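At this stage, I wrote out one protein's amino acid sequence and its backbone structure tokens, and that material follows here:
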Amino acid sequence: MIINILSKIIGFINQSIAAIGITAGVAISFTNVVARYVFDASLVWAAELSIFMFLWSAFFGAAYCFKKDAHIAVTIVLDVMPSKLAKLMLILSHIITLVFLIAVSYYGYEYLLLVIDLEERSIDLWGMPMWIPYLVIPIAFAFAAFRVLERLYIIITTNHEMILKESEAEHVLAEMGIGARRNADNENVKELDNMVKEVEKKTGGML
């Protein structure tokens, strides 16, 4: 119960910051362009602030993608392996990812303490302490680690025969309300296969 509540809170934070960050970054950049070319007056703080907004949006957006399992993954090797071995490889890859994310979060926190000790401040942003924008590193990577840990638990507790997911093209179709292959009846299997191939063709196989 507590884990579910924590998961929802983290998801809300990730989504909110990612959306607000990209929106604010674009708005600030646009305002600065208008001020520069229309009024011949550049906003000295706009460039640095927009960079920080985009960075926060990117990091928290990436953390949210771990929840949706939306990061690019090459599964061609897993597809031809026995399901038991594929499950073990998935567990190993997620453990390595988890260790990496925890390490970055930890050392990001250590760097944050160093910045606080050095009292580093931004010149363009009215002397704002630089530990504030750098705070994104330990928090975003910690959130991402939490998501990977969630995914790892799901993989471990899932039967090895069911562990290999459908292609992401099938996921796109499923989100559009079109049934996944394993749920389709015999009459729709051929049609669904053609739709999957068409999606993969139009995306260049990048899904």
